[in-house]
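Most newcomers find our protein records easier to grasp once they have seen one. Each record describes a single protein and holds just a pair of labelled lines. A learned vocabulary of local backbone shapes supplies the integers on the structure line. Nothing more is needed to start thinking about how sequence determines fold. The record below serves as our worked example for the rest of this section.
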Amino acid sequence: MSILRLTATQRRRFRDELSATSDASYYRRLLALLQLDQGQSIAQVAHALGVTRQSVYNWAWAFQRSPRLATLEDHYGVGRPTVWTDDLRALLQSCFCQRPDELGYAAVNWTVPVLQEHLQHCTGRLLSDDTIRRQLQRLGYVWKRYRYVLPPDPEREKKKTDPQAAEKPAAVHGAVG
């Protein structure tokens, strides 16, 4: 005996959804419930779809509790709320109107650690360096790492080959005959 019975309307809607969806997880859930409705056992359905029996039980139980197609869709959370308020964004952008040494920091250019210290001083919140970098990217700032450049070699001209010597043919050393 099947643990799930669908009405004719539900079966038709399930089949329509199967042909319309591109979400593999949703497709698997719809297919599982259709197979249960056709009389297959939980173990058969689980084996055919490559999932655990508990997953099939959970899908059937959830649909019986709330018989809507939306019950079988994935519902992702919205994630952690952002720390970036409009005031904090404005503060970050205002930093670039001045140099850090003008604000009392021992640096002449803004770096992520200096920004981190300044924002903590102004707001009392310690923001991670990754959080600051992501926000700078969202605001369109290009952040380049400092690259050490060697000074030009003052002896370079002396080390060059003589251009006139390169034009002269080399003398041939050989036996005189």
User: Anything to note?
Assistant: The radius of gyration is 35 Å. The chain has a mean pLDDT of 87. The first helix runs from residue 8 to 20. The chain has nine helices and no strands.
